[in-house]
Amino acid sequence: MAKLYFYYASMNAGKSTTLLQADFNYRERGMRTLLFTAGIHDRGGKGVIDSRLGISATAVPFEEVTDLRRVAEDEHYKSPLACILVDEAQFLSPVQVRQLAHLADEVGIPVLCYGLRTDFQGALFPGSAELLALADSLVEIKSVCECGRKATMNLRVDAEGNAVRQGEQREVGGNERYVALCRRHFMQRTA
Ligand SMILES: Nc1ncnc2c1ncn2[C@@H]1O[C@H](COP(=O)(O)OP(=O)(O)O)[C@@H](O)[C@H]1O
Ligand SMILES: Cc1cn([C@H]2C[C@H](O)[C@@H](COP(=O)(O)O)O2)c(=O)[nH]c1=O
Ligand SMILES: [Zn+2]
């Protein structure tokens, strides 16, 4: 029975690395996979899943209107897919999460999604909320705050390192723009 998985973490926790390791394990054994990443997330290039460790892979970039079910079914019926892996899953729409659930439930392909739970204001991304509601398995990838506690929040900072409290939910960036913190320090920094 195929399942829908949500591997979630703060930024810079190893999500993309874990995805790429899982993908390699399938492909090393001759099994076919399909990778998706958010088109907006072009930090390593559009349609590229890149890890801070330096490994990367090409992926199908998804936009708000992309029908993931149709893309995956077209590929699957050309040649069976053993697994679908989605990076930057926080950028999925709720409808796209349900498309992925259909692929697991009705087409029988395991779907592994990797992404953030919450944004720079501590609010759930819509796609993440849908995954938290629907996924069969919720797996936390752990990382640490500068204080040693588990990092669960994502602080957006300006060039001087000051907290940014207002703005658009979607803003692509890396370690220069975001810092993963524990709840205690996130609340202190954004108070
Ligand atoms: N030079 C390095 N040596 C070892 N591990 C590293 C190095 N640089 C980054 N990492 C590890 O990679 C993690 C970030 O991996 P990445 O897949 O880019 O994270 P995410 O996708 O969650 O943002 C860091 O938390 C750290 O553990
Ligand atoms: C907190 C937060 C993050 N983002 C963006 C910034 C990056 O492009 C991705 C996460 O990248 P990761 O290193 O692979 O975790 O999400 C955003 O748009 N809005 C936010 O609030
Ligand atoms: Zn802390």
UniProtKB/TrEMBL annotation:
<keyword id="KW-0067">ATP-binding</keyword>
<keyword id="KW-0862">Zinc</keyword>
<dbReference type="InterPro" id="IPR001267">
    <property type="entry name" value="Thymidine_kinase"/>
</dbReference>
<feature type="binding site">
    <location>
        <begin position="87"/>
        <end position="90"/>
    </location>
    <ligand>
        <name>ATP</name>
    </ligand>
</feature>
<keyword id="KW-0479">Metal-binding</keyword>
<dbReference type="GO" id="GO:0004797">
    <property type="term" value="F:thymidine kinase activity"/>
</dbReference>
<dbReference type="Pfam" id="PF00265">
    <property type="entry name" value="TK"/>
</dbReference>
<feature type="binding site">
    <location>
        <position position="182"/>
    </location>
    <ligand>
        <name>Zn(2+)</name>
    </ligand>
</feature>
<dbReference type="GO" id="GO:0005524">
    <property type="term" value="F:ATP binding"/>
</dbReference>
<protein>
    <recommendedName>
        <fullName>Thymidine kinase</fullName>
        <ecNumber>2.7.1.21</ecNumber>
    </recommendedName>
</protein>
<comment type="subunit">
    <text>Homotetramer.</text>
</comment>
<feature type="binding site">
    <location>
        <position position="185"/>
    </location>
    <ligand>
        <name>Zn(2+)</name>
    </ligand>
</feature>
<feature type="binding site">
    <location>
        <position position="147"/>
    </location>
    <ligand>
        <name>Zn(2+)</name>
    </ligand>
</feature>
<dbReference type="GO" id="GO:0071897">
    <property type="term" value="P:DNA biosynthetic process"/>
</dbReference>
<keyword id="KW-0418">Kinase</keyword>
<feature type="binding site">
    <location>
        <position position="145"/>
    </location>
    <ligand>
        <name>Zn(2+)</name>
    </ligand>
</feature>
<keyword id="KW-0963">Cytoplasm</keyword>
<dbReference type="GO" id="GO:0046104">
    <property type="term" value="P:thymidine metabolic process"/>
</dbReference>
<keyword id="KW-0237">DNA synthesis</keyword>
<dbReference type="InterPro" id="IPR027417">
    <property type="entry name" value="P-loop_NTPase"/>
</dbReference>
<dbReference type="GO" id="GO:0008270">
    <property type="term" value="F:zinc ion binding"/>
</dbReference>
<keyword id="KW-0547">Nucleotide-binding</keyword>
<dbReference type="GO" id="GO:0005829">
    <property type="term" value="C:cytosol"/>
</dbReference>
<feature type="active site" description="Proton acceptor">
    <location>
        <position position="88"/>
    </location>
</feature>
<dbReference type="InterPro" id="IPR020633">
    <property type="entry name" value="Thymidine_kinase_CS"/>
</dbReference>
<feature type="binding site">
    <location>
        <begin position="9"/>
        <end position="16"/>
    </location>
    <ligand>
        <name>ATP</name>
    </ligand>
</feature>
<comment type="similarity">
    <text>Belongs to the thymidine kinase family.</text>
</comment>
<feature type="binding site">
    <location>
        <position position="178"/>
    </location>
    <ligand>
        <name>substrate</name>
    </ligand>
</feature>
<keyword id="KW-0808">Transferase</keyword>
